[in-house]
# Entry
Amino acid sequence: MNIIVAVDKNWAIGYKNKLLVTIPADHRFFRKTTLNKAVIMGRKTLEGLPQGLPLKDRFNVVITSDPNYKVRDAVVVHSIEEALEAVKEYDSKDVYVIGGESVYRQMLPYCDTAYVTRIDYAYNADAYFPNLDEMEGWQVTDVSDEQTYYDLIYYFYKYERKNH
# Structure
């Protein structure tokens, strides 16, 4: 399975249930990468999407502890195990974990590839992604050239689990 995330220089991913910044090229990369694939997310991530609706042309799995939570065009599950069960028909290369913080942390052990947009700026944040540079077992296998959006500098990184 894969993880896809945008982080700042401190591995921050959000503030008050919102993304730290919107970079059009990062959104295009996210869309192109996840289109016609399965995506796994938490309820707050779903509610932060445009109109709070599941992503079009993707198989959406939403994890929530609320037993009564319902959402059209998505499969609602209540545990990591149920989420894994929901996507078992998909090749694991076609499954992407898209957030937020607690879903990323719980799903990371099941993932072997992480697509990380690293933004060279430190934002005020309250949600973080695990720092893969400090984690045993992960290595950078690809880095884009420097990208810019106005005065922001960012890079597309690909991390892979070692010996995989």
